[in-house]
Amino acid sequence: MNLIATDDRALHYGDGLFETLRFHRGRAALWDWHMERLVDGCHRLGLPAPAPEMLRREAEAAALPFVDAVVKILWSAGRGPRGYARPQPPRPHALIEAAALAPAPEGIAAGWCSVRLAIQPALAGIKHLNRLEQVLAAQECQAAGWQEGLMQDMDGGVVAATAGNLCACIEGRWLTPPVERCGIAGVGRRWWLERGALTMAPLTPTQVEHAEALAVINAVRGPRQVVALGDRRWPVDPGLGELARAWQDLHQA
């Protein structure tokens, strides 16, 4: 059992990072990319980075009871006295949990969230522990009956979905917003970008609503099509089906 002390900085200040990985039969296909992002996040927050092999052993042990598992690694800044300043040197530690990968509907019904993402380049791209914006957005999704909510920044630019990166097909090209001011540089998004079939470009809500197809991608579910956004409906996109099969093949190889 993972235990957290009452003076842990992750609990008091959200001081830390996390990664959520998909495992199949004890193997995480994109482990190295997750660790690269975690180490980058540590450098940007001024935290000592974990030893990836130590985390791998613990994560694999947690995933072992499941054929398909979701493993969450939380890297906390560690314990400390009251006050925002960290003790020096900080002594971070890992909390790891695993669960069976639950089935999910193939198509996503989505809506626009009224909650917007704050612009903070110092935290953009990394998976820091403060996710209250997503918590509030998820409450909107529950109340409205959506599987996903689409989120904008404070200037009205499209950023992402509540639990994944948003991708839109416009004039035959798949585009995804940059995450230099807010949002997460997703591992699933990186996989699609490195296949050469996705390009980073700013998106407006109007462009998203009039796109030829929409998808949400994250490192657990891979690419999933948005089939409804408000009154707009999209037919099944064959190209997304092929991409989803490539994602499955990657994880089950």
Care to give the gist of this entry?
Helices cover 29% and strands 27% of the residues. With 253 residues, the protein is an alpha+beta fold.
Can you lay out the helices and strands and say which pair or pack?
Blueprint: H1 9-13, E1 16-24, H2 31-45, H3 52-63, E2 68-76, E3 93-100, E4 107-112, H4 132-144, E5 148-152, E6 158-161, E7 165-170, E8 173-176, H5 187-194, E9 199-200, H6 205-209, E10 213-218, E11 222-229, E12 232-233, H7 238-252
Name the shape in a single word.
Answer: globular
Rg, alpha carbons: 18 Å
What is the C-level CATH assignment of the largest domain?
Answer: Alpha Beta
Low-pLDDT regions = none
In CATH, the homologous superfamily of the largest domain goes by the name D-amino Acid Aminotransferase, subunit A, domain 2
Helix content: 25-40%
At the fold tier of CATH, the topology name of the largest domain is D-amino Acid Aminotransferase, Chain A, domain 2
Number of helices: 7
The termini sit apart by: 31 Å
The biggest sheet, with number of strands, parallel, antiparallel or mixed sense and barrel status, is:
9 strands, mixed
| Global mean pLDDT | 96
The CATH architecture of the largest domain can be given as Alpha-Beta Barrel
Q: What structural class should be given to the helix and strand makeup?
A: alpha+beta
Total domains? 2
- Count of individual beta strands: 12
Listing every helix as H and every strand as E from the N terminus to the C terminus, the arrangement reads HEHHEEEHEEEEHEHEEEH
Strand content: 25-35%
